[in-house]
Amino acid sequence: MQTVVQNISWTGTKDAINIFGLLPDKFYSLFCWNLLLPDSKPVEIQVPLLQKGSNKIEVPLNLSTGIYHIQLIWGQQLPENLGWWCGSSRYDLPQATEEDEVRENYCYTILGNSESKEALIAAVRQLNLDFDIKQLQAGISSLESHQYYFPEWLDAHSLLDKLKGLLDFLSPESVPKENNLIMPIMPTADSDKFPTPIVKTVEHGNWYLVTVRSKKREVFLKYLELSIKQNQLQDLILKIEIPQDSVYEDLVLLNISNFKTASTHLQKIENFQSIERKPLNPEQVTRMLGVR
Fold this sequence. Notes:
The chain is an alpha+beta fold. It is built from seven helices and twelve strands. Strands 4-3-6-7-8 form a five-stranded mixed beta sheet, covered by helices on one side. The chain has a four-stranded antiparallel beta sheet with strand order 10-11-9-12, with helices on both faces.
């Protein structure tokens, strides 16, 4: 395949990118791959023809919510990696994730700067996402080369660390061989049942019942953990427990040292609805957690 050397560069805005170095009278396209919807096909955008005498072309990016890795395609040439672009707000999610809490959780592991690569890998495993390894490698290369236009809230270094961790996880050599798998010890008919773990239900504070938006508990917990870290609330919100019974699917138990202060912080967290003013007694907590 013949390769044409072009000195291509670009700059970004929240609505478009400006590309420099294109050849006049050549047809170009942008392939825009959305990291928030990694199993969707890239969006193709036709680049307007560059007029003779001009060295810049503006390409409007009328894209849905996402973090996009953009490649330039033309003729029979190999794709040119331009880099990453994002014009979304911190809490924006693609429409395709609505009413899908698992996909929302995956998106928040990408969007949250303090989210770990382990959290991202767990979300990918839960969704069983099929990533294009070459696409992922190209995206990592662009971040390492500082080829991106991101809003202030999105940390490129955090994203790079998570994508590198994901690539390591997805690489074939990271998959353990079957002979090396450690199988869990299961109880037999003759063995004693495993003892029920004892959950400590009394901390230094009081237990309170928090209600979140329907089907949004997992997302709320992500933002709660983020708020605790960012605002150093470890001495205020002492412990978080999640009732497992489906009848409690929109409820969270919090052990709190100061109700008034905690309530102020909780009201700022995405998907929070209310907190009961009356603390729970230990018996109520034990019953909700299913501890015998």
